[in-house]
């Protein structure tokens, strides 16, 4: 069996909204369970197949504001912030989510994959059949439309032929021909009389229009002469006013030139005074600048002297530090030389000791060989001291050497 999804412990479920208990209970009396342990509560409904929010009849009263304009009065709803939503699902949806959360094994996954592939193949087959059926219907519809068009054309041709035959049959009759001739003659006479009457009326209207135009032209000529006389009179008046204005303008220009000359003279005097003032201010500023430059030079000289003193002091400190470092290095070199000499002496003594031990071991080995080959055993003492070179075994030594 595949592993089930994560089960909720019984202690994490609590009854919420039991029927008939607590204030604000819903009249539909549905019980629900709340899954705790999360930020958003999940309510599992058992009795309500749909979303409980859809069944609530209570709607909060919305705040409105009245806007009065010149043409109408409107009430606008003030938008409210939506509270934190509460996820409420039905029991069937909860079971479906629980089932979908369960992990599938290989067999179930393979079966589901085969089912999906079978559904996909069936959908493709149905789509292909529907496309073939639509194509066949379209072909039949085209053939039917083509046949209907051919039938309509044949029917129209037949109708035209019948009308032509009937018209020819009527024209062949003598009485009908005479009646047609009378109709044509009356029609021609009526058209001729109408054209003659229209021509007479047109000639009369043209004569009246000619008279009216002549009268209008005469009136326009008289009006034009009056306008011309009025324009001439106005031109003379404008010329007189222009002459007077020119004389007055010349007088004003002369006065303005005199005033302007006086203003220019006064402005020149003010400019000279300002130049003198600017020269005095520039001189004062130059003197102040020279004083500041002198002070700056003094400060720079003092700063340079202080910097030179600090540099000399720093060089002296560096010289003393270098001497101290050199002394330490010399002492260190002497200590290292002494240590090296001591180590060299120790190595020489160690080599001498090793040579002595090697010679002693060789004498012991030679003596042991003589004892083995000779008649007497001699006094031999085993020596368990390790060999100085190899560190292995015990080499026998002479009693005197021991």
Figure out the total of helices.
Answer: 4
How many beta-strand elements? 6
- The low-pLDDT segments are 1-58, 376-402
Distance between the termini: 87 Å
Region (Disordered): 1-36, 307-338, 363-402
Domain Trichohyalin-plectin-homology: 170-371
Biased composition (Polar residues): 26-36
Keywords: Cell projection, Cilium, Coiled coil, Flagellum
What does this structure look like?
Among the domains are: 10-103, no CATH class; 205-281. The strands form 2 sheets. A 4-stranded mixed sheet has the order 1-2-3-6. Strands 4-5 form a two-stranded antiparallel sheet. The chain has 402 residues and is α+β, with helices and mostly antiparallel strands. Helices cover 70% and strands 6% of the residues. The chain has helices at 52-55, 91-101, 106-172, 174-373, and strands at residues 13-16, 32-35, 42-45, 64-68, 73-77, 87-90. The chain is flat and about 190 Å long. Residues 26-36 have a biased composition (Polar residues). Residues 1-36, 307-338, 363-402 are annotated as: Disordered.
């Amino acid at each position: 069996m595949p592993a089930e999804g994560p089960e909720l412990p019984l202690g994490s479920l609590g009854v919420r909204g039991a029927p008939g208990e607590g204030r604000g209970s819903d009249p539909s009396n549905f019980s629900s369970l709340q899954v705790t342990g999360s930020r958003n509560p999940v309510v599992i409904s058992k009795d309500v197949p749909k979303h409980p929010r859809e069944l609530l009849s209570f709607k909060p009263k919305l705040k409105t504001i009245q806007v009065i304009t010149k043409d109408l009065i409107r009430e606008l709803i003030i938008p409210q912030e939506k509270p934190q939503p509460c996820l409420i699902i039905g029991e069937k949806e909860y079971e479906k989510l629980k089932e979908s959360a369960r992990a599938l094994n290989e067999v179930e996954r393979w079966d589901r994959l085969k089912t999906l592939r079978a559904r996909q193949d069936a959908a493709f087959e149905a789509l292909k059949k529907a496309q073939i059926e639509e194509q066949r219907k379209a072909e039949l519809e085209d053939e039917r439309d083509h046949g209907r068009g051919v039938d309509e054309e044949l029917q129209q041709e037949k109708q035209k032929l019948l009308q032509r035959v009937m018209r020819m049959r009527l024209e062949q009759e003598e009485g009908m021909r005479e009646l047609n001739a009378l109709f044509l003659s009356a029609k021609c006479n009526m058209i001729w009389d109408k054209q003659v009457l229209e021509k007479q009326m047109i000639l009369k209207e043209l004569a009246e229009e000619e008279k009216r135009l002549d009268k209008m032209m005469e009136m326009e000529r008289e009006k034009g002469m009056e306008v011309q006389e009025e324009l001439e009179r106005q031109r003379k008046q404008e010329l007189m006013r222009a002459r007077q204005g020119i004389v007055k303008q010349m007088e004003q220009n002369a006065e303005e030139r005199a005033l302007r000359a006086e203003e220019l003279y006064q402005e020149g005097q003010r400019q000279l005074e300002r130049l003198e003032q600017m020269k005095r201010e520039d001189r004062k500023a130059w003197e102040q600048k020279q004083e500041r430059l002198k002070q700056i030079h003094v400060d720079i000289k003092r700063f340079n002297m202080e910097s030179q003193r600090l540099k000399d002091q720093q060089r002296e400190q560096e010289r003393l530090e270098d001497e101290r470092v050199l002394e330490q290095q010399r002492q260190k070199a002497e200590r290292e030389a002494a240590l090296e000499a001591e180590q060299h002496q120790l190595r020489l003594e160690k080599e001498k000791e090793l040579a002595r031990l090697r010679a002693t071991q060789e004498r012991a080995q030679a003596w042991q060989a003589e004892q083995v080959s000779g008649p007497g055993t001699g006094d031999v003492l085993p020596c368990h001291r390790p060999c100085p070179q190899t560190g292995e075994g015990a080499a026998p030594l002479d009693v005197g050497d021991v």
